[in-house]
Amino acid sequence: MRKLVLAAALALGLSLTGAAVPAAAAESNGGVRVMPLGDSITEGTQVPGGYRIGLWQRLAGAGYRVDFVGSQFNGPAALGDHDHEGHPGWRIDQIDANITRWVQATGPRTVLLHIGTNDILQNYNVGSAPSRLSTLIDHITAAAPAADVFVATLIPLASSGQEAAARTFNAALPGIVQSKVNSGRRVHLVDMHAALTTADLIDGVHPTAGGYDKMAAAWYAALRSVPGTIGDPTGTPTAGALVGAGSGRCLDVPGSNSANGTQPVIWDCNGAANQRWTASGQTLQSLGKCLDSPTGATAGTKVQIWDCSGAANQRWNRNANGTISNVASGLCLDVRANATAAGSLVQLWTCTGSPNQVWTAR
């Protein structure tokens, strides 16, 4: 039976070696550091990016500036920050063996932990899995005592035997979490099992895209229920205006001209559609087009709107000092020549933090 379980896990792409995938360079927008931590369900097996896609979009759409952190990196362009600490096939003990150095390397403010599925799939000392989880939580809170740790119950499993084991594991979690709270640690329980059913699984273990989005909704609700874990919504809210600090005028698509290459300007704020910017991941969209830094942009290159592609030249970091910098070019949104008059052109320029580069949401 154990061989069958291992074979099934391998067939589902759950590596049993614990070997990590090489990570790309970390992305950062200077926001609140959140570590998605776990196994293939955190990584997003079957749906690359997994729940992180829906979570990122909810956070960005509400104006929260969050920086996902971790040594791993994957997901589609719709996921504005691809960093995570999800390791396919890993058990609790394997995560625990690395957690201190991961936490010390990234300094997360918030940790989202969903782990234990592979302990069950591999039938690895399942009875003592809750104890291993308790130890893992202790190591996380010791390495980051100011962090909030959200501990999720395991999502359902299609196999009746494995589901029974998951339910037994989950039943131990409320007591574990409460014991940490009683000792002064910032640990919270998230009932992820209740958020999904087996109908939300694509292969009996991993969620469908819709299932992952249900996980995203559960994480998002949990995060918003604990002040400080994702900061305050200081970014660009859905359909909000961006007001230049130096001029008091709004970022505007002149004449509501949605043709590719149109260069935005600043204009008296009027609430019109051509002054409303929607944050989706790291993109900023107006009139159905994306704010774009032309390929090879240098200081003085015009910023423009263009068909959305998800490429790095259409991804923007909303920085803590109010500047908005382009991921590809590293240049900031800038009102040319520090101008304040209506109709003044908006360009790309070396980031200085001066008032003509500072934008606030309205």
UniProtKB/TrEMBL annotation:
InterPro entries: Ester_Hydrolysis_Enzymes, Ricin_B-like_lectins, Ricin_B_lectin, SGNH_hydro, SGNH_hydro_sf. SUPFAM superfamilies: Ricin B-like lectins (SSF50370), SGNH hydrolase (SSF52266). Gene3D superfamilies: 2.80.10.50, SGNH hydrolase. Residues 237-362 form the Ricin B lectin domain. Keywords: Signal. Pfam families: Lipase_GDSL_2, Ricin_B_lectin. PROSITE patterns: RICIN_B_LECTIN. It comes from the Bacteria. One of its GO terms (molecular function) is phosphatidylcholine lysophospholipase activity. Residues 1-25 form the signal peptide. PANTHER family: SGNH HYDROLASE-TYPE ESTERASE DOMAIN-CONTAINING PROTEIN, THIOESTERASE 1/PROTEASE 1/LYSOPHOSPHOLIPASE L1. This is Lysophospholipase L1. The lineage of its organism: Bacteria, Bacillati, Actinomycetota, Actinomycetes, Micromonosporales.
